[in-house]
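testing teh design pipeline on a random one, pls ignore if ur not involved
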């Protein structure tokens, strides 16, 4: 305060602190993609990095320090991430129970890959829900029955038609 006027100070993210925040931002952006863990909650997740920066600044001010530390950014990112994953869990639990959503997610993920995709690739690299053998088996069967996925004799999965699920 300056008399009766509010004079907020600026807090900057510099050096390693800025690099950590950028890493968090990029991590969230990757997960916002079609097959990412946060794709179903884009509206909230798209603000995650900014919210982490705000939280880091609040930690700094609360603790009476003049500069945001890398630890502040890490703690803020962990807190924001926890809330994002909880929101994802709550908002997607009903939708995830629908087998057709798993089939659509599988088709989208296979379409997003640049190399041939085999079942083991899905179990290693696809969104976590599709890695479950029972979920994957059902998704493959549903996608194949819907005419959206072909499973070759060698186990290669190929999208039939366009990759947005319309064909």
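output:
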């Amino acid at each position: 305060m300056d008399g009766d006027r509010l004079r907020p100070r600026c807090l900057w993210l510099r050096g390693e602190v800025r690099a950590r925040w950028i890493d968090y931002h990029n991590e969230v952006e990757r997960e916002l993609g079609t097959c990412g863990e946060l794709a179903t909650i884009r509206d909230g997740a798209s603000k995650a990095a900014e919210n982490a920066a705000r939280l880091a600044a609040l930690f700094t001010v609360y603790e009476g320090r003049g500069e945001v530390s890398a630890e502040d950014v890490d703690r803020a990112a962990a807190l924001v991430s926890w809330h994002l994953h909880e929101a994802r869990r709550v908002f997607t639990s009903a939708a995830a129970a629908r087998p057709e959503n798993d089939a659509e997610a599988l088709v989208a993920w296979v379409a997003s890959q640049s190399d041939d995709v085999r079942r083991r690739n899905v179990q290693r690299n696809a969104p976590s829900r599709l890695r479950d053998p029972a979920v994957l088996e059902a998704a493959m069967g549903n996608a194949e029955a819907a005419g959206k996925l072909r499973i070759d004799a060698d186990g290669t999965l190929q999208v039939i038609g366009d990759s947005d699920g319309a064909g």
